Amino acid sequence: MNTLFLRRLFIMALIALVSASPLRAAESPPSSAADKLRESMLLPGVSLSQGISEITGVAISPLLGVSVIGVWTYWKTEPHLRPRLPWYCHPGVWGTGLSLILICFLKDFLGTAAPPLVKKPLDFLELFENKLSALVASVGFVPLVTLAMAHFNQVPDQAVNPLADSGLAVMPLVSLIDFGVHTPWISIPVALVAFSVVWLSSHAINVLIALSPFGIVDAGLKLIKLALIALVAGSTLIHPYAGAAVSLVLILIGLVFAGWSFRLTLFGTLMGRDFLLNKRATPTDLEAGVKGFLARRTEGVPVRTLVRLKQDASGRSVLTYHPWLFLPERHIPLAEADHVICKGLLHPSLAHRPAGAPAALRSTLILLPRYRRLEDAIARRFGCQEVVDGALLRGFKAMRQWLVDMLSSGRKLVEMHPG
Question: Which residue range forms the structural domain that includes residue 253?
């Protein structure tokens, strides 16, 4: 599938989403206080629903979302009011953002014909760009949207007082929502949490794209991101409440998978950093332990948990980790088995041979790329039986050997039959 075509659909869907944005400066206010009251009494409110959808859509793709919203708001605003627009509506900001997006388009469009070892560094660079744009959006965009939601939902006291006798103005749910929206120290943290969990789940897709060696898998994962933003945009066009409902479902899913997404994000960050910076560990670094990620669930500890392979006081190999990176250190005893170190194209790994299947290897620990070329030292230090080639490296070497054999056979044939 043409990646450029998918990107264009992505932009069209996001433009449709921001067309209903509560930040449009040219939008006229309600004609009367009564009209504004009726709008605000819609639970939780039209502008609140649009704000939830907007935050969710931007969380899926921060750079594209902020850039499109900026250029859309700038274009819809009267020229004499444009100096009063937020920072992301400045032409220099959204122009830079759209330029970076164009570079990503060219990378995806031209990268389909390039080998993975050429395209993957660019995918890792895009991975870190997504992190940076999410940080900027969370600091400078989400709070502004949250405050705008509160501003558009304000109701004058004189408009609320006529309803006091009916009791509608003091309904518990209405009062609770109104208190939350108009209290920045509550609404802004809640919006940041919602943005973060959706971004984590979306960023996990970027990590999978960067780690995948197959172009068709990359296209499928990008299609999933396109489907998510199109779902939010399409439901918002149908009705703001529908967009808010879809966004709330995505936020709930993000909360459920927050731990999984966080571990995958950390995995992609450290692997990409070592790969891009070409970090190299030294034999003396092994004294402090070897960092890696669990390849499967071990002793109740989830897969892709950051661990350190060390030796305890008795000389036994153990795995240590900090839950959520800051909680007290815990230990996982390494099972007594025939452990081997597997070399890889990008990173080594620790595996063991299951009992009764000496030819089979089961991966235990994925080591960071910085430990390449230290496989023998790691095997000696932690008592591994041997150092072997990983499956992907074996396939690469077999393909290279086949090419060498074919070319060398051709030269021999020419020598034997010169005429």
Answer: 3-272
